[in-house]
Design a protein that fits this description.
The chain is of the alpha/beta class. Helices cover about 35% and strands about 15% of the residues. The chain has helices at about 40-45, 60-65, 95-105, 140-155, 175-190, 205-210, 235-240, 250-255, 270-280, and strands at about 25-30, 35, 75, 110-115, 120-125, 160, 165, 195-200, 205, 220, 260-265. Helix 4 runs parallel beside helix 5. The protein is globular. It binds zinc ion. Zinc ion binds next to loops. Zinc ion binds near residues 48 and 53.
């Protein structure tokens, strides 16, 4: 489960202590294999200046990128994961949670709240793949569900960025699986109330996240070249024994086949969200 927390080798908000030799000034881009000056990519919101590859960015950084400065009010920040199954994989789940919390500064893989997008008040949620692969356990499900319910009550447009990875969190077993139904039901009520939900998918969005809230947007945006799907391509190929088409499960492929509505580059996301909210009259 918890593999490399930063598979792209990029954590733009990490502050390095001052040393004689500066660390991590340069990074290799997984997209074009070029060596990129870290500051240059940071200036571009974690987008490669050479090939437009979109790096992983942490949830807090996403908030800074999308919401107007100083407008974010966090909801349910005190919600903490528990360990009802007393689950142990390589290490006890309780221990893993403690390690992940210390390493990421997050209590769990989702942050929710209210904020402004170019002066428009919205309900906002974002998940972070660095926390146990951005998997959806009880806290992620509960936070997102409450955010959906507040969006419904307060008639706010809802934006959720699945910065995820995704999948139900196995350490909480059935309690994780039921989050898919819970958050989906809340989104159905938002829809019945005439609410607007814009889902933004990033690389990768898979498993239980893709199979629930991430796919249920009135509008589904995706970052370029993101991997989006339920099971991975190798699993599918091994199951159905058919060679998969080229580009299968990428944003571009899914746009062509109608699964997503628009590919939005990260630097354009804020203005595109504002424009969409206005267009929908919300
Ligand atoms: Zn590149």
């Amino acid at each position: 489960m918890a593999k490399d927390p930063d598979p792209n080798g990029w954590r733009s908000t990490v502050k390095y202590p001052k040393r004689a030799v500066p660390e991590g000034l340069w990074k290799r881009c997984p997209g074009c294999q070029q060596t990129i000056f870290r500051k240059e990519a940071e200036k571009r919101m974690g987008v490669c200046p050479e090939c437009d590859y979109h790096w992983y960015v942490p949830a807090r950084e996403r908030i800074r990128q999308v919401l107007d400065e100083g407008t974010f009010e966090e909801w349910d920040a005190e919600l903490e994961p528990a360990d009802p199954l007393e689950f142990t994989d390589r290490i006890p789940y309780r221990e893993r949670l403690k390690q992940e919390q210390e390493r990421t500064g997050l209590r769990d893989a989702a942050i929710t709240g209210a904020g402004m997008v170019r002066g428009r008040r919205v309900a906002f949620g974002v998940t972070d793949s660095s926390f146990i692969m951005g998997s959806m356990g009880s806290v992620v499900g509960e936070k997102l569900t409450r955010a959906v319910e507040r969006a419904t009550e307060q008639q706010l447009p809802l934006i959720i960025i699945s910065g995820s990875g995704g999948g139900a969190r196995m350490h909480e077993g059935m309690l994780s699986l039921m989050q898919m139904a819970k958050v989906s039901a809340a989104l159905a009520r938002l829809d019945q109330a005439g609410g607007l939900f814009i889902s933004v998918l990033t690389n990768p969005t898979m498993g239980g996240v893709a199979a629930s809230f991430a796919s249920l947007g009135d509008l589904v945006f995706a970052e370029p070249k993101a991997l989006i799907g339920f099971a991975g391509p190798r699993t599918i190929e091994a199951t159905i024994r058919i060679e998969l088409p080229k580009g299968f499960q990428t944003s571009e492929f899914l746009l062509e086949h109608g699964f997503i509505d628009r590919i939005v580059r990260r630097p354009d996301l804020q203005s595109e969200l504002a424009r969409t909210i206005d267009y929908c009259g919300k």
